[in-house]
Design a protein that fits this description.
It is flat and about 50 Å long. It contains 4 helices and no strands. The chain has about 120 residues and is mostly helical.
């Protein structure tokens, strides 16, 4: 758990530093001004979801499978609503927000999947 939190924090810091460098160094690339908030939000949700899935992994396999399916569906629905609401309220920054959100989502989800697979092998 502590190892996951540390590695997740390192991932968030690396993404934050890279985003800051791109945001100020290459202003033509579409990075949302909200990138720190997106990063913090995805960091928090990934940590909470991982803790819940790790707890369900210790129980029966079928319960873990059900938890993964439910969590992923809920996560996609929730994230979709957030993206839709932001895009509706801030149309001028919608494309950069969606692209930034997707890149972070992909990074955090990939990290989460590999961490769960690593725990599952033990």
């Amino acid at each position: 758990m502590q190892n996951f939190t540390l590695k997740l924090s390192v991932l968030a810091i690396v993404l934050g530093l890279a985003s800051t460098a791109i945001f100020y160094g290459v202003p033509k690339l579409p990075i949302s001004r909200a990138f720190p908030y997106i990063l913090l939000f995805l960091f928090s949700t990934t940590l909470i979801i991982f803790l819940a899935l790790e707890k369900s992994m210790k129980k029966r396999t079928s319960q873990f499978t059900n938890a993964v399916m439910l969590v992923n569906f809920s996560k996609l629905l929730f994230y979709g609503i957030i993206i839709f609401v932001y895009a509706y309220l801030n149309r001028s920054g919608a494309v950069s927000f969606i692209l930034t959100f997707f890149v972070y989502y992909f990074a955090f989800t990939t990290f989460e999947v590999f961490a769960l697979l690593k725990i599952g092998k033990k």
